[in-house]
Amino acid sequence: MRLGYFPGCSLHATARECEESLRAIAAPLGVELVELDDWACCGATSAHATNHLLSVALPARTLALAEQQGFDTVLAPCAACYARLASARHELARDRSALERVAAILERPFTNAVKVVSIAELLRDLTPRIREQARRPLGGARVAAYYGCLLVRPTEVSGFDDAEQPSSMETVITAAGGTPVEWRRKVDCCGAGFSLSRTGSVIRLGRAILEDAKKAGAEAIAVGCPMCHSNLDLRQKAMSRTMPEPLGLPILYLSQVVGLGLGLEPSSLGLGRHFVGTGRFVEKATAPPAPAAKSDEPRKEVA
Amino acid sequence: MSGPASTRRSTLAAEIRQRTGLNPARCYQCGKCSAGCPMAQETRLRPHDILRLVQRGRRDRLFADDSIWLCLTCETCSARCPNEVGPARIIDALRELALESGEGEPPRAIRAFHESFLKQIRRHGRIFEFGMIAGFKLRSGKLFADVAKMPATMKRGKLALSPRRIAGVDDVRRIFDACSAAARKEVQP
Ligand code: SF4
Ligand code: SF4
Question: Which fold has domain A127-285?
Answer without folding.
Answer: Rossmann fold (3.40.50)
